Amino acid sequence: MASAEIIAVGTELLLGQIVNSNAAFISQELAADGIYVYHHTVVGDNPERLKEVIKIAENRSDILIFTGGLGPTEDDITKQILAKHLKKDLVTDQFHMNKITEYFTSRSRTMTENNKLQAVIIEGSTVLNNDYGFAAGMFLKENNHTYILLPGPPSEMKPMFTRYANPLIVNENGGKTILESKILRFFGIGESQLAADLNDLIVTQVNPTIATYAGDNEVVVRVTATAKTKEEAAKLVNETEQEILRRDGTFLYGYGEVSLPELVTAMLLERKITISAAESFTAGLFQAEIARFPGISKIFKGGMVTYSAETKQSILEVSSQVIKEKGVVSSECASEMADNVRRLCNTDIGISFTGVAGPDSLEGHPAGTIWIGLSVKNHQTEAYQFVYGRDRNHNRRRAVKQGFQLIKQFLDANA
Amino acid sequence: MASAEIIAVGTELLLGQIVNSNAAFISQELAADGIYVYHHTVVGDNPERLKEVIKIAENRSDILIFTGGLGPTEDDITKQILAKHLKKDLVTDQFHMNKITEYFTSRSRTMTENNKLQAVIIEGSTVLNNDYGFAAGMFLKENNHTYILLPGPPSEMKPMFTRYANPLIVNENGGKTILESKILRFFGIGESQLAADLNDLIVTQVNPTIATYAGDNEVVVRVTATAKTKEEAAKLVNETEQEILRRDGTFLYGYGEVSLPELVTAMLLERKITISAAESFTAGLFQAEIARFPGISKIFKGGMVTYSAETKQSILEVSSQVIKEKGVVSSECASEMADNVRRLCNTDIGISFTGVAGPDSLEGHPAGTIWIGLSVKNHQTEAYQFVYGRDRNHNRRRAVKQGFQLIKQFLDANA
């Protein structure tokens, strides 16, 4: 199996002025090809250091993919240094030279000498066309290594990689094995608990591999398998997925790049179910999250933020008896908030959030004690209690996600 | 002058699932310190390859900064591999161990063995506190090299770097000269405009240096001076600050790590001015932002999210005449929303947000057309129009910040 290293050349990366998103893009593409990427390297526009980086990469990687340093300025040095290192000459690629000449002629502008540099390639390399710029790319096999040179700007690099470099890479290096990967998303279980539950699989399994990542109040699990065919790899992934779900399937909410709010709002839109919310300690966070999605006004009508006992009564019409006798951190208050907002906003679902955000306690309840009420037309109103920690804003974000999860569970159960 | 290398450890980076934004952040900070970063490296969760990467980095760099691989799972290996390489033991840091134990005890949850791993540090290292997580960071000097270990999640890494790692780095490696830095925060002016206004200073000035960063709808300017004494450095910073404020001082809202919402809520708390909000396209984002701050219930009472014309009338009592004749994207609607929420919630200030989030237009107004209403007891209600772009969630966040800015301007003018 061929291994690749992505070498980004550019001092602006080392100054933190831009993020190396090119490496992530190429890595994703190569993972899909079944080619392992074991290293990313960033080095500045410095001849000596670039030369050293090339030597180190040749020692540990089969495919060296360079991004950046193909432009017209003095500090663009990638192909010059690599040519010298490989003891190759630089020659002009007529296709790119014509393109540059034409550009300047058609604009009646003077072409400077350094513009021509962008059409120069390393002798013996296959030219990779630049459909969105002037700098020619290169593909070169030499001494058991493959060298690929791509421009730095993502708008030029990405199409060049996808259209011209990647097919050559797959042809020369891929083919033998296929890599298949699946993302599982969990809510309501911590990363360490999930990792403990799956520990034997994570530690002993070589193919597929299992990796867990902590997201914002959620856990992401990636299952990755390699095999000779796509079907075989998918089958391996599927078997491991089933074993994971057998252990912690109750916490799974979705697959791939989807988020829980995205999933739930799509379900509401699909089924034309309208919703409103009454929020105390989350203070609008749930509604703000719903409104992130364009076109949501078809099902989202609005709601209340009742941050004080006073506004719970004045604008949300929660009874003074409930507030006096049960308090605002109670099942009764949550239920009444959900019922009232549903009635006042005239929607199918009303959801409510009340509780103690923290760090201080409230009405004798410790920080992190929260209630979520769910009022649905023609259904019994329910209130659910959760007990979180003392981190105020963590609790608020977690409660909002929990609210989406409760709606999803209701929709799943009443499909 | 010391040179640094940033080593990110994590297979998810090599698969392109996340972008190495940590390296860019740390590079920016080190550039401000006057420390050169010559290499970024990314390596996977693989003991052999990580060990080789450490050796290579020791050969070419003075300071090795690791990000990632400090978590509780089997594939978190950074400190284990480095300890072995340096022939050091791993010991428990009691501060982080207590933090982890307390977390699980307070939730009556079982602490798994792997959780404890996060409190383990390399013997002889200075602990870097993790204010937003459990994994301890480390700072270690050994054999003429400095080793810094930071967690991978940016929400944990950034504060740990800024608060604890960076002062140690500057102290140990900056050395002979004193570095003084000041952060100026601007709202209402774009980064490119500000950079153009300050271009001559940015280009020609060596000491102090001026760097501009685009934040979330704001611009941050850092002025950094070096001198023999703290007083001398502060004087240099102050002179440059005055020159910057002479040019763009009207857009300055604060200094240092403070945010505009934080500043405004502190002013409201200080002056005991109560507030409520009525939000249409921002849908709770303003209120959710206010409620981030503990103790805010003293002045924040709540409000409405009126996402439809219907709820604007039913729960916020906006007159049907205004909605019919002027529409919801109008000065009149914004004013009435602000007046009504102030009356219904019985507060000193009522603020309203109505407009077109985008990407589509509404009532003939293009995406990005917004109105903010400000109703204050014993003052004339005002409505302000702003025209933004087509990015829905960018517009929503920007409007919320604009709302805080309008309140600040009112409070400044009526001190």
What can you tell me about this protein's structure?
Two copies of one chain form a homodimer. Chain A is α/β, with parallel strands linked by helices and 415 residues long. Chain A folds into three domains: 171 residues, MoaB/Mog-like domain (Molybdenum Cofactor Biosythetic Enzyme, Chain A, 3-Layer(aba) Sandwich), CATH 3.40.980.10; 78 residues, Alpha-Beta Plaits (2-Layer Sandwich), CATH 3.30.70.2860; 154 residues, Maf protein (Alpha-Beta Complex). Helix content of chain A is 42%, strand content 25%. Chain A contains 16 helices and 17 strands. In chain A, the strands form four sheets. Chain A has a six-stranded mixed β-sheet, sandwiched between helices. The longest helix of chain A has 22 residues. The first copy, chain A, is elongated and about 90 Å long. Chain A starts with a strand and ends with a helix. The model of chain A has no long low-confidence stretch (mean pLDDT 92). Strand 2 of chain A pairs antiparallel with strand 2 of chain B, so a sheet runs across the interface. Chains A, B: This is Putative competence-damage inducible protein. Chains A, B: Belongs to the CinA family. Chains A, B: Pfam families: CinA (PF02464), CinA_KH (PF18146), MoCF_biosynth (PF00994).
